[in-house]
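Supplementary Note 3. Input sequence used for the single-chain structure prediction.
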Amino acid sequence: MSEDETAFMRSIRKKPEDLAIRLIFADWLEEHDDSRGELIRIEEEMKNLTVFSDRYWELKHPRKRLRETADKKWLKKMGYSASIPYLFSEVPDDYKSRWRILRELAERWWGVPMPDIGGPLTPVPEKSKLEPREWKSVDDALNNPATVIPASMREWMYFVRDLQVGLEYFDGGFGNGHHFSDSEDEIHFLQLEGNRELVFVEGENRSEPDPTIRRSGIIERTRDESVLIGARISFLALHLILVQWCNEDHWDAYGDYKLDEDILNQCTKFFSLQTRLDDIHIFEKEDAIAIWAPSSLFFSRDFLQIRATSRKGLAELEDFFFSHD
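The predicted structure, written as C-alpha cells, is reproduced below.
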C-alpha cells in the first residue's frame, strides 16, 4: 500500500461517514487504473437505494463482480463487507417491487444467486435432478409468445426455477409439483403433495398483475368447490421460501411457535424494524432476521424461521424467542 493510499485509509477510519473523502479516494484510485474506485462509487450510491429500485438492480451485479476482485480486509475496513442491511423497511404495493424484495431475501439469507425480475427463465442444467415433468410445462409456457398469464405468475415460475437450480434441498421432500397448465377457466401453477390439491388463478383474472389464488382437491370437484385462499401470488412465494432449507448453519426453524401479544411487544425493543405482509410478521435487526408465518399451503402449523450471519447472532435470536416460553 502506497503512502497516499495509507493516508486515505487513515482519513476514512477517522471519519467513516465523510462521503467527500471516499469520493476523492475513488478519484485517486481511478487515476491509477484501480477498479476499487468504481466499487467505492457503486457502494456509496447503493447505500441510498431501495432494493426494489431499477438503479439498485443495475448496480447489484457490477458491485458483486468488483467485490470479488477486491481484498476482503480492505472491504471490511471500508465497511463494504458482509453486513446485511434491512430488506423490509419499505414494501410498495406493486408486484415488481415485492418480487425484487423476495429475490433479494432469497439471495441474502438462502444464498441463491438471483437475477432481476422479468426473466429469462433459467435453463435446467443437463445433470439436474429435476424430472422433465417438473420443468417442461413451464418452459413451454414461458417460451410461447401466445401465453397470457398474470405477470406475477410469470415471476413465480422464474423464482421457483432459480430456487430449483440454486438450492440443493429445494422443497425439502414435500412432494409439491411446479407444473403449468392452462384451461380457459383455470391457470394451474402449483400441485401440492403429489397432486392431492391444485393451486390456481381463475382464468377471468389472467390480466391482473398479482391476483388472489384458489385451491381445490383434484378428485371429483367442480369449480364452485374451490376455496379462495386470499393471498396474492407474491405473498405465497414468501411462504414458499420459508420452508426451504440450505447448508448454512446460522439458521433454525420451529413449528408450532405461537406469536402472542407479549412476544410482539418485546420484539419492539429487541428488533430495529418490524413489518407485516398480509399475515406474515417480519423482524429485522443488524445482520439478523426472524420471520413468523401462520399455517399455510406448505406447512400445517405456525412457523418461525430465524437467520443470522453468525452463530452468536443465531444464539441471541434463540435466547430471545424461547426465553418467553
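The chain has three domains: 3-78, 95-241, 248-322. The longest helix spans residues 54-69.
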